[in-house]
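Appendix B, record 7
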Amino acid sequence: MTDGDVVAETPRVRLRRLHLDDADDVAAMVADPEQMRYYPRPKTSAEVDDWLAWNLALYADHGFGTWCLETVPDGAFAGYCGLRPLLLDGGREVEVAWHVTKARWNQGLATEAAALAMAVGFEQVALSRLVAIIHPDNAPSRRVAEKLGMAEERTLTHDGEPTVVYAA
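Structure tokens (predicted):
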């Protein structure tokens, strides 16, 4: 990791640019059916490789993307969190997204990391709006969105899945 990789940090969490060598950590998390219960299905290693390549391109094209979520001070992988452009119901949006590995659930890391990502979006990228798209049954992520001050805006079907849109 270089200093240029760190996007934002608190005493407990760090957001840094993803690297290709993060693939194994991400793949282990998204291959687990329990951790992917609110997604259509677990992801394969090939899908993770494609997702990582897409994020590296987002950094170059937009200056933001999904970042690796690490705990401070040990630098341990705790998931991912960040900003991604999204076509939602025919309109262009930027989503704040988070996914914390189950070993770190219920520690407040998702809320803290997502708050950092939102601050980057509003203060550094100068976005005027962010959304979060959440499966209606995903009560923990809905609580995170509410703690972040996001308001439930509407429900829709996105990529064939029921979705609640929160906005700030």
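Remarks on this record: The helical segments are 23-30, 45-62, 109-124, 139-147. The chain has one domain: 3-167.
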